[in-house]
Amino acid sequence: xxxxxLRPVRITxxxxxxxxxxxxxxxxxxxxxxxxxxxxxxxxxxGVLAEGVMKHTGLTFxxxxxxxxxxxxxxxxxxxxxxxxxxxxxxxxxxxxxxLVRAVLPDAHDLAWQIALLAGGVALNGFATATYxxxxxxxxxxxxxxxxxxxxxxxxxxxxxxxxxxxVVVAGFFLGGTVGVGTVLYALAIGPLTQALLPLxxxxxxxxxxxx
Length: 212
What we know:
By secondary structure, the protein is mainly alpha-helical. Helix content is 72%, strand content 0%.
């Protein structure tokens, strides 16, 4: 399969379709994170950190997620990364959606329901990630940190991502975040899921000369 072009493209190219795709992907991402928090079987790496921050600050889970994203964006400055429309939307939409869904989705106590929420949350997260990344309107805060560090250090994206996520999980765990089987399942499944789904949803630029 040919390598997909995921470089950001100006919003003026097919703005209606790509804006809807971006917002839908981010809303689904926030929903998937909320599902994982209600399963209580382990969170995705940044969710572990957000839960730890929430427990020590009294912030909502969504607000803690947003604060962490803004802090990560500050790390873009020395890395000379450029935010896009998708970067800003990523911070706002995910943070709001997580709290909205958590407000209506109860905690799971039955193991079968916990497993269903976990599996559904991981699968939805993979689809959501492919959807918002496929809109090609700028990376999320964490994605930009990963690619910026890879570019500055000369290390592979895979190695940098692993290093970041291990650091985040350890920090979140010591702050009281939930690490469990869900954390492991997410780490193993999210990459293959996103890669498999991206070709189905990625926006393909028919006019390469207009890329930003």
